[in-house]
Amino acid sequence: MLKISLVIFGGKGKVIKFIFLFLSNYLFRTRMKGLKVVSPLFRENFNVAMNSIRNNRLRSILTITIIAIGITSLVGIQTAIEVLSNSVSESYGRMGASAFSINAEYYGQSVQHKRGINRRQLTYEQVTRFVKEFDVPCVKSIHANAFSGYTEVKSGSLKTDPNIVVIAANENYILYRMGDIDLGRNFNSSDMDNGSYVCMIGENIRKVLFPNEAPIDKIITIGSVRYKVIGTIKPQGNTFDTSLDDMVVIPYTNARYIFLSNDTYYNIGIVPGANQDREVIMEKAKSLFRVIRRLGPRDADDFRIFSSDAMEQDLNDMKAKLSSAALVIGLITLLGAAIGLMNIMLVSVKERTKEIGTRKTLGATSKTIEQQFFMEAIVIGQIGGFFGIILGIIVGNIVAISMKASFAVPWKWLIISVVICLVVSVLSGYMPARRAAALNPIDALRYE
């Protein structure tokens, strides 16, 4: 049974002593089939190391701080990356595993073709023709941003923050985004054919504009145009991209004559039907859209078919690069910590030369002295690593709080951080430990 004396809680350095005596009791005093794992010599070396750390408190704290900063930067960045990764995965997971979209080629340099056939954006005529002619069983959404950026929405004297996205879409946009109607209804064929002044609003908009009443059939103002609320969208929660909670969806047939122009970038969203092969449907969609865009056999695609798993692959590539950068930053900081720790240990050997001579005279072997200084370096390194890990998790999850994302702990990097601290401690303590062990006891006793 684990026993920890209450004496741990008293005296100088009580927190540090408690942590490491607890670990030493737990890891090294456990009896396994009657076998005592740790010898009294280990405990003695541990106590000598702790006394040395307390006696050189300022130098030890500075070194521990440097190590903690290095580990904080490493763990903090990795935690933030994990939070962002989870958020993106959740966001695009809401599109559905089989969903994909057809967009203009936004990315990279402009696509060069042998023949200049199309403007860069997907036009209204092209997307509506595609939806009409693509006869594969699937959900087909047409959507575009009604404004180039964010806007505010008003109702009476109340108004939202200017962070609302107005989407011009058909009745399938909510299904494509894996959303659902909470109150009221979706667009119907009459709304779309007539370009009606109706809309659906997200949860955050409902809370601000209609906190104590049902919003159905109420009027909101977008810009200078009035729309009747016919439905509310079920809460979706925070996502990496813009959430449905912060959206107003209006019929694209209405927006086309009010907010949209000939330069508007339209998009198509597709969710294959049950038991449909996404890859086959993507190829069919690509073939039809090449015809609609009047591309010849030798012309490169001037549009992009985008799927959630493609986004996740891009994310994983970016995550790997950021992780490598964080590792480099952490290692550079820890290199400085290693130099500082080695300097402390070398100074400690010099200051305690007479003590080393005394211990050797009383029977301590060179191996025992070497273990004592190794122990001191390892204890300092692990204290710095412990506080660095805690601070790193806290700093990283501040990102999660700001994004309203789920808490994340990068377990793999926590283990790597512990190993790195151990390696730094061993490398920093090797030379001082060897120098202490090699001292001649007679010369050490005469040292002043």
Structure notes:
The chain is an alpha+beta fold and 448 residues long. 53% of the residues lie in helices and 14% in strands. The chain has helices spanning 14-28, 40-55, 57-93, 124-133, 173-176, 189-194, 203-209, 252-255, 278-292, 308-351, 353-361, 366-402, 411-437, 441-445, and strands at 31-32, 35-36, 100-104, 138-145, 153-155, 158-159, 165-169, 181-184, 198-201, 219-222, 225-233, 247-251, 267-272, 303-307. Strands 3, 4, 5, 6, 7, 8, 9, 10, 11, 12, 13 and 14 form a twelve-stranded mixed beta sheet that branches.
Write a compact overview of the structure shown:
With 448 residues, the protein is α+β, with helices and mostly antiparallel strands. It has 2 domains: 39-89 and 314-445, no CATH class; 112-301, no CATH class.
